[in-house]
Amino acid sequence: MEAKSWRQLEQDNPGLAAFGASRIDGKVAYMATLQDSGWPRAQPVTPIIGHGRCFVFVDPDSRKAKDLKRSGKFSLHCGMSDSSGSSGEFQMTGTATLNENSEVRLQAESVSNFRPAARSLLFELLIHEVQATSYRGGRPDRQRWHSGTTETVV
Fold this sequence. Notes:
Blueprint: H1 6-12, H2 14-24, E1 29-34, E2 40-45, E3 48-50, E4 53-58, H3 63-70, E5 73-78, E6 89-98, H4 102-111, E7 121-136, E8 139-146, E9 149-153
Antiparallel strand pairs: 1-2, 1-5, 3-4, 4-7, 5-6, 6-7, 7-8, 8-9
Helix pairs in contact: 1-2
């Protein structure tokens, strides 16, 4: 399955993309990466969405940077406002790619709600799958998107 940019999610399912942006853009989320041993590692990140892309800035000396450079595989889950999930859940899996293009970095910085350190690495999060759950009247409304195909899950 080929990973796609955030723009593809916006084109295929604007409502799901808007919901995801409301849950992760500029907010603390939790990213799982794979360690050398193959075991998962979860760490906080602040995703940035703009110009049809989803980015994270990462300290170059962090374990997260090492994991992403090695395998690129990640799973990202939004932070939760309460234990009932009333604000909704958003999760995406995919491949993080290091982007060293200075123009792209300026674009990412222009839509960021914080000033990343100059030494931070910029990764673009390319999406394999998105899962979202919102709760309407106490009932879960689930959606799933696979690199270009949207299906509603019951």
